Amino acid sequence: MTELLQKNIAAHISLSNPETEAFCNLFQHEIIKKRSFLLREGEVCKFEGFVIKGLFRVYHIDKDGFEQILYFAIENWWITDIDSFTNETPSQLFIEALEDSEVLLISKKDKEFAYSNMPEIEKLFRVMTQKTHVALQRRMIDNLSKTAESRYIEFSEKYPQLIQRLSNIQVAAYLGITNVFLSNIRKKIALKK
User: Fold this and answer.
1) CA 159, 67, 131, 125: dihedral to nearest 10 degrees?
2) Does residue 170 form part of some domain?
3) pLDDT (tens digit, 9 = 90+) per residue, 13-69?
4) What residue stretches are annotated with the Cyclic nucleotide-binding domain (predicted)?
5) In sequence order, what are the residues at sequence separation of 6 or more whose Cβ sits closer than 8 angstroms to the Cβ of residue 86?
6) What is the rounded distance in angstroms from the CA atom of residue 146 to the CA atom of residue 157?
7) Which domain holds residue 10?
8) DSSP states of 85-153 as a string?
């Protein structure tokens, strides 16, 4: 059950087998059914999660009732509300399973235990946090400087396995456009081929 997590860890840092096993043992396995929530707005996020099976969306609902998707998480991706988790404040986000899913969850207490007893774990999360910041910065720049069509093309090229698992409405919400506008973009692209 933790093989994928072990590979993810090994891609970022070097741990001995006993250290890897000890760290992985801090995680709790959870099965989340399609359309169920791992986190709802207003709850305090008490976990960082690693997706071992399935698909999640992390989103916010704005004051006008529109869904704004921050990101999706599939197998081998991490998932959390880092603000709520770190600051122990009510979340502004929803984390919903879009498919029957399985995650490994670590609590703040167990993560702090790992930091204190396995110094390399702090490096693991620092490296992952840096990568997340880079991805969010690039996404913000893209949203400010690129057309919706170019953002859609880049998203579909970068995540072909993800785009096949999402509805048009979900892709449109991620891109910050309407479903109708996304349909027009897809038609325009199809005509160019």
Assistant:
1) -120
2) no
3) 999 999 999 999 999 999 999 999 999 999 999 999 999 999 999 999 999 998 999
4) 32-110
5) none
6) 15
7) 3-117
8) HHHT-B-S-EEEESSSEEEEEE-HHHHHHHHHH-HHHHHHHHHHHHHHHHHHHHHHHHHHHS-HHHHHH
Residues in the chain: 193
Rounded CA-CA distance 156/96 in Å is 21
Instruction: Using DSSP, state whether 190 is helix, strand or coil.
Output: helix
d(CA 80, CA 122): 17
pLDDT tens by residue, 131-181 = 999 998 999 999 899 999 999 999 999 999 898 899 999 999 999 999 999
- Could you tell me which residues are beta bridge partners of residue 60? 68
Domain membership of residue 55 (yes or no) is yes
- Note whether 43 and 27 are within 8 A (CB): no
Q: Looking at the domain assignment, is residue 125 inside a domain? A: no
Biggest alpha carbon–alpha carbon distance for the chain? 58
- The total number of structural domains in the chain stands at 1
Are residues 94 and 35 in contact, defined by beta-carbon separation less than 8 angstroms?
no
Distance CA 52, CA 76 (A): 6
CATH number of the CATH domain containing 45: 2.60.120.10
| Residue 65 zone, left/alpha/beta (φ > 0; ψ -120 to 50; rest) | left
Residue 183 lies in a domain: no
Nearest by Cα to 101 from 47, 56, 167, 166: 56
